[in-house]
Design goal:
The complex is a heterodimer of chains A (465) and B (365). Chain A is built from 16 helices and 15 strands. With 465 residues, chain A is of the alpha/beta class. A 7-stranded mixed β-sheet of chain A has the order 10-11-12-9-8-13-14, sandwiched between helices. A 5-stranded parallel β-sheet of chain A has the order 5-4-3-6-7, with helices on both faces. A 3-stranded antiparallel β-sheet of chain A has the order 1-2-15, with no helix packed on it. In chain A, helix 1 runs parallel beside helix 9, helix 2 crosses helix 5 and helix 2 crosses helix 7. Chain A is globular, with a radius of gyration of 24 Å. Chain B has 365 residues and is α/β, with parallel strands linked by helices. Chain B is built from 10 helices and 14 strands. The chains are: A alpha/beta (465), B alpha/beta (365).
């Protein structure tokens, strides 16, 4: 990047504008294939790309080598052609809408990607920048990705590898980093964006939203957290160790930096074991994980947050309001048993987690309501036949995803990120009405009964399937 | 050992007022710090419980460095009142959280005169090194309207002690007073130096304001600016803000003085730019009775000079609550000066800075 970030951004935007035509002309299947071919390389132990990624990732992202490998495997697993194809298919009833007008449910529609998708990604979760890049290319939107400071490596490697494999497609993706105080660079990027995708803290996202032109669609992913819930069904001798280990892994993965990391675990009463016993098992599991997935040295911000949590918990413990176990100066894991905080009351980072008693799962949604706007995923163990009703209540409380705890960390690429389709958010629908088109929509049953040829004159675009 | 709060506070007030800008010598600080600890251990039940749990009682602790620290977050969960039988004369509240809905911290202050004694001498050294009084104007709400704001309270102390005249330009909600424009204009016209107080966010909004235009201030004027942008709707770099203020208000760069403080601490740190020039910008000088250490993020062991870590403060002015406070702020120490990295993500700017931003946002400002 040149010394002048704004100039570098302008140059990148010019290149992206020139690349648009090329990417628009590519069938979506071909794009998934090209992206998948690059993505696969990150999983091949013999591929120099993966070797390079694993060499540099721990230092850049502040992760231990074992954690870096686990994270790369988890993220890159979603960058295969098959997974990306499934994503497009999950998002669009007829994915051919990405290639041109198609008749879908009696309407002739097309999904047009943005002429320019600017994506500002904050944080240091490796792979988020690649996900952003991939999403935009899947809808044929040339994209400028500004990765988080701890996530520069993978988007750059991905873009470079894509340039080797498919220069035309790679020309539609630029990965640039500029410091957050380079306001002119941001202004330059936003001025030309059709779509702005902003990841980050509430503050960052609000600032970006305010800075975007009125004509730019703003897609935001603000600060969110996950929680885990453990039902009485698994609070017994045969299940609890596995649930504690799954929970510990979910806490440890991404070192509590991701929106899918559980900061609280609600443990239901009425099982053979209680929340205290679960907290003990969870602490032991976190301690054991230090051997398999050792934590990296903390950066000052993580240390600051960790000691706010520990110190506050120790004060509460000394007053009989909580219990706390932690890894001392050797390891950052910290388990606090006690009163229920709200988001922001007590920061949890670096393998810190709070264990809270819940009389019954039916209470959970109301207990989480205050944090609903910051709730992302709910990981569960147990629940069984109660799942449907509880998931519905959690959904109304703000959750976007209810999954088994062991699946918390790595949602599939088609997940409803913050409750919205990751690709549908980026496209603009275009509808064509022909003189002979129906002017009122028929009931669904009638539409199914009619032949598509009723609304598709000969010579019109391909029919939806 | 004297654990009587009022007697200890009397002695500290006298010593604060007699202090030069130099840090207290170590022996004097250490002795006073351990007195503080003994008092707080005796007077503050939740703190005593923590110390006892750690085996860090006054009998066991020989160095102030080993006095148990209280994390700033804990002010949200406890009232650390160490005033003995004295009720709180004020309870300062933090302004909320940048992470979302959360409770606000509370700092009980059993004796406001101790806060006043701690706040004024460093403020005067930083803003009025030549002494005397000055015309003052404030973008910080007046203390009568914002009694829970430690910043407003400090501005009130300053106005009372050093103001020849005082114009409070905004109300408790952060909105301009109806006569703010006229008051500004009069200050500019009268030709006497002005001390203008405000948060960084207040200045940012004032620069953008269509209601009131910030005037060019008379020669010799100066600006006190405090608070960060974290938690705000928008931010600019401090350099950009200062450049805009220099351009609009005609003050020298060295006349924009940054204050660093937080609700949980009654002493402050100041950039001594007015006396030492802009080279000292970014290097905050602690009040003489305030010790600052940068600690290892994992072990909390002190770091060598110049290494960035988590900042811990031992503030004798916090006699009425708890003195040894571990913050979320990151910084390094060189020759007794503190270099802040900016506040850690999610931590809170002090006082009304963010409250004002929210109000401005609500008002479409």
């Amino acid at each position: 990047m040149s010394d002048d970030p704004a100039r570098a951004v302008q140059a990148a935007l010019d290149r992206l504008a020139a690349a648009r035509e090329g990417v628009i002309g590519r069938p979506w299947r071909e794009i998934t294939g090209a992206l998948g071919a690059v993505g696969r390389r990150f999983l091949d132990p013999t591929d120099p790309l993966r070797v390079e990624a694993l060499r540099a990732l721990p230092a850049e992202a502040g992760l231990g080598p074992e954690m870096a490998e686990t994270v790369l495997d988890g993220m890159a697993g979603d960058w295969s052609a098959a997974r990306l194809r499934s994503t497009v298919e999950a998002e669009f009833e007829d994915p051919d809408v990405l290639d041109g007008p198609v008749v879908v449910r009696g309407r002739e529609v097309m999904a047009a990607g943005p002429a320019l998708c600017v994506q500002i990604v904050s944080g240091s979760v490796p792979g988020v920048g690649v996900n952003a890049l991939v999403r935009s290319l899947l809808v044929k939107g040339p994209t400028l990705v500004k990765p988080g400071r701890g996530d520069l490596l993978l988007p750059r490697l991905f873009q470079r590898a894509l340039a080797e494999h498919d220069p035309e497609l790679a020309a539609a993706a630029e990965v640039l980093y500029w410091p957050s105080d380079a306001a002119a660079a941001l202004r330059a990027a936003l001025a030309r964006s059709d779509v702005l995708v902003a990841y980050g803290s509430d503050t960052t996202v609000a600032a970006l939203r305010a800075a975007a032109p009125a004509t730019t669609r703003v897609v935001t992913y603000h600060h969110r957290v996950a929680v885990a819930v453990v039902g009485r069904e698994v609070l017994n001798g045969s299940s609890v160790e596995r649930v504690a280990l799954d929970t510990a892994r979910a806490v440890a993965l991404f070192e509590q930096r991701g929106c899918v990391c559980p900061h609280r675990v609600y443990v239901e009463e009425g099982g053979e074991l209680d929340a205290d016993a679960f907290a003990e098992r969870l602490a032991s599991a976190l301690e054991a994980l230090e051997s398999n997935l050792p934590s990296a040295p903390l950066d000052p911000e993580e240390g600051a947050a960790l000691h706010q949590l520990r110190g506050t918990a120790e004060l509460l413990a000394a007053s009989g309001q909580a219990r706390v176990r932690h890894g001392g100066v050797a390891a950052p894991w910290t388990v606090v048993r006690g009163a229920e905080p709200t988001v922001g009351d007590t920061p949890t980072l670096a393998r810190g987690v709070q264990v809270i008693t819940l009389a019954d799962f039916e209470e959970l949604a109301s207990r989480l309501a205050a944090d609903g706007r910051h709730l992302q995923s709910v990981g569960y163990a147990g629940l069984e036949e109660r799942l449907g009703a509880i998931a519905a209540a959690l959904g109304h409380a703000g959750a976007a995803r209810v999954v088994p705890i062991e699946r918390l960390s790595f949602p599939p690429p088609w997940w409803l990120h913050d409750g919205r389709g990751p690709l549908r958010e980026l496209v603009r629908w275009v509808e064509t009405e022909r003189p002979e088109s129906a002017t009122t929509l028929l009931p669904a049953a009638a539409r199914r009964a009619r032949s598509p040829s009723d609304v598709r004159p000969s010579g019109s675009p391909r029919r939806g399937r | 050992m004297d654990t009587d709060f009022q007697k200890l506070a009397d002695a500290l007030e006298v010593r604060f007022e007699a202090s030069t800008s130099d840090p207290w010598v170590e022996d004097a600080f250490a002795s006073a710090a351990l007195d503080c600890f003994r008092h707080q251990y005796a007077a503050c039940a939740p703190y005593r419980a923590l110390c006892a749990a750690r085996g860090a009682t006054p009998e066991e602790v020989a160095r102030w460095h080993d006095v148990p620290m209280v994390p700033a977050t804990a002010f949200k969960h406890f009232d650390f009142h160490s005033g003995g039988g004295a009720p709180s004369e004020a309870v300062f509240r933090t302004s909320g959280t940048t992470r979302g809905a959360g409770r606000r911290g509370r700092h009980p202050v059993p004796r406001l005169s101790l806060y006043r004694a701690a706040a004024l001498p460093p403020l005067a050294a930083a803003l009025l090194p030549e002494g005397g009084r000055i015309r003052m104007a404030s973008l910080i709400p007046p203390p009568e309207e914002a009694p829970e704001s430690s910043l407003s309270t400090m501005a009130g102390f300053a106005a009372e002690r050093y103001g020849s005249t005082v114009e409070w330009l905004v109300d408790a909600r952060g909105a301009w007073r109806p006569d703010a424009g006229r008051a500004f204009h009069a200050l500019a016209e009268e030709g006497e130096p002005v001390l203008l107080l405000g948060t960084a966010l207040a200045f940012l909004h004032a620069l953008d304001s269509s209601e009131v235009r910030l005037p060019c201030l008379p020669e010799g004027s100066r600006i006190m600016e405090t608070g960060g942008f974290k938690g705000a709707r928008r931010s600019v770099s401090r350099q950009e803000l200062h450049a805009a203020l220099v351009e609009r208000m005609g003050v020298e760069g060295r006349a924009i003085v940054n204050e660093y403080g937080m609700t949980e601490l009654l002493s402050q740190l100041w950039e001594p730019v007015l006396t030492e020039g802009v080279e000292s910008a970014g290097w905050h000088r602690p009040a003489p009775w305030l010790r600052v250490r940068a600690l290892d993020p994992m072990t909390l062991e002190p770091l060598p000079e110049g290494r960035e870590g988590v900042l811990a403060f031992f503030d004798l002015a916090n006699l009425g609550s708890v003195s040894h406070v571990l913050t979320e702020d990151i910084g390094s120490i060189v020759k007794g000066r503190v270099r802040l990295r900016g506040r850690a993500p999610g931590s809170e700017p002090r006082g009304c800075s963010r409250a004002m931003d929210e109000l401005m946002a609500a008002a479409g400002g």
